[in-house]
Every structure is written in structure tokens, then in C-alpha cells.
Amino acid sequence: MKLSDLRPPVGAKKNKKRKGRGIAAGQGKTAGRGTKGQRARAGGTKGPYFEGGQLPLVRRLPHVRGFTNIFRIPYAVVNLDTLEERFDANAQITPQVLLERGLIDDTQRVKVLGRGALHKPLQVSAHSFSDSAKEKITAAGGSVSELPWTRPPRKVR
Description:
Elements: H1 57-60, E1 76-79, H2 80-86, E2 92-93, H3 95-100, E3 110-113, E4 123-126, E5 128-129, H4 131-139, E6 143-146
Parallel strand pairs: 1-3, 2-4, 3-5, 4-6
């Protein structure tokens, strides 16, 4: 058997109905469209948007407002009161340590914010700090070091 010998079984393929080819053809004259009316005409059907003149659903729904800033840089946020609870005095705090303790989800960028009070010295390394967080950490006898950040490689779709 060769590829050129393959044929569909007899009766499996039917010819397309040739509409509008004369009365003798069985589908002549009105070609199965009935008589007169919008649907009998060429191009006579309305699109899915049309609702008989009623204000269409698409126009009744509110627009999606605002926009997505493509330059937004996401931060994993940690507050000072959390660091006060979870770490001992003079602890070295880095994004890796925060990730291991479950305080952040990923190590993209970490920002320390100044909510709460800090009563013990901590050595905190992060990508960004709020001004109040810097003041409170240094006032408690700790140190602040800002980490450099490089953009991660783009995800290829």
C-alpha cells in the first residue's frame, strides 16, 4: 500500500450543496432562505453586538480605568516592628535571611519601612529604606547598608 493509494471510504465525502442554481437543482430561486425579510438579503444578519436597538451589553458595562505602569519595580516590604520581634540584638539581616525566615516571598528587592519602634541594634542590609527606618535603626545603635540592585534577566515567553 502506498500513500497515493489511500482513499476515503465510499459515501464518506459528500458534494457541497450548490444553492441558487435554478429551480431544477432543488435549492434554486430563494436558495433555502425563505421569502423576503432581513435574513433573506445578502449581508442581512446583524452582528453579535446588536441587541435590537437596546443599548448593547458592551456599552452598558463600565470601562476598565487606569493603567498598568510597566516601569513599576516591585518591593518585598518589611517593617521594623517585625524585625524587632523576630531577630536578636546585633543580628545580621539580609534579604536571604528574611527569605529563609519566611518574612518575604522572594529576593527581588527588599524595602525596610519604619513602622513600630526598635530597641536593639541590628545590622540591616536591604535595597531600600524609608527615612524613618534609617533614623530608628541608627538611633538604636544598628547599621544600615543599601544593597545595589541589577535588573533580573527578562523572562522569555
